[in-house]
Amino acid sequence: MRPAYAACLAVLLAPPADGGAWLETPGQGFAAASASYRQTASGAQHELNYYGAIGITPKLTLGVDLNQTGDLSGHALVFARLPLREGGRYRLAAEAAFGGNHDRGVWMMMQKATLSYGRSFNTGTASGWLAVDAAYELRNNGLAAVWKLDATLGLNRPGKPAPMLQIETSKPDGGVFSYTLTPSLRYPLRSGRELVVGVEHRSAGEGSLGLKLGLWQKF
């Protein structure tokens, strides 16, 4: 994630590395890959994710969002993010994504619209960020709709492991509400990389507990 706050305002307003309401600097970007392994009542399940974004102009960020959950489902999306409010105490951004999703290998069209809120904070003893994303997805050629509300709270500890909490919720139209809680630690590595290690608790009809490993890279 982004470096610790310094005394200067420019560093104070630096965005977290994983986007949300913050746009990437033109010519620079961020990539994240993660793998989750969890035990469910029906057996072991693994999930792979990749996210990559690059700044095109000061007001346009483009990227890709890939997901694969075992051999059951997944998606592949390209997205564009535009700012709605920059600077000040908080930021707002809108994102449109297009691509496809699959159910057991059968691919169909998918669209996604996201409204993101982001805010940096500095209490004098700690600094960090809060990001909230509200999304509406149309899957299966527009036949299945899903509402999502996610939040991330992270702290900065330069050169040391730093805590982060992610909350993800999902409610399909006519379906069951589900949520995932993932407390994590971010370990700084060389060359702007971070190793993210988390414990994932998911409630989606049945509860499950898993381990999540991720690698983040600024470029």
Spatial order of strands in the largest sheet:
1-2-3-4-5-6-7-8-9-10-11-12
- Fourth-level CATH superfamily: monomeric porin ompg
Runs with pLDDT <50, length 5+? 1-15
Mean pLDDT: 89
Query: How would you characterize the largest beta sheet?
Result: 12 strands, antiparallel, barrel
How far the N terminus sits from the C terminus, by CA atoms, comes to 12 Å
Strand content: over 45%
Folded structure, characterized:
- With 219 residues, this protein is mainly beta.
- It has one domain: monomeric porin ompg (Porin), CATH 2.40.160.
- The chain is 2% helix and 69% strand.
- It has one helix at residues 9-12; strands at 29-40, 43-57, 60-69, 73-85, 91-103, 106-122, 127-139, 144-155, 162-172, 178-188, 193-204, 206-218.
- Strands 1-2-3-4-5-6-7-8-9-10-11-12 form a twelve-stranded antiparallel barrel.
- A hairpin with a 3-residue loop joins strand 3 (60-69) and strand 4.
- The two termini are 12 Å apart.
Characterize this entry briefly.
The protein is mainly β. Helices cover 2% and strands 69% of the residues.
List the helices and strands and how they pair.
Layout: H1 9-12, E1 29-40, E2 43-57, E3 60-69, E4 73-85, E5 91-103, E6 106-122, E7 127-139, E8 144-155, E9 162-172, E10 178-188, E11 193-204, E12 206-218
Antiparallel strand pairs: 1-2, 1-12, 2-3, 3-4, 4-5, 5-6, 6-7, 7-8, 8-9, 9-10, 10-11, 11-12
List keywords for this structure.
219 residues, 1 helix, disordered N terminus, mainly beta, Porin, globular
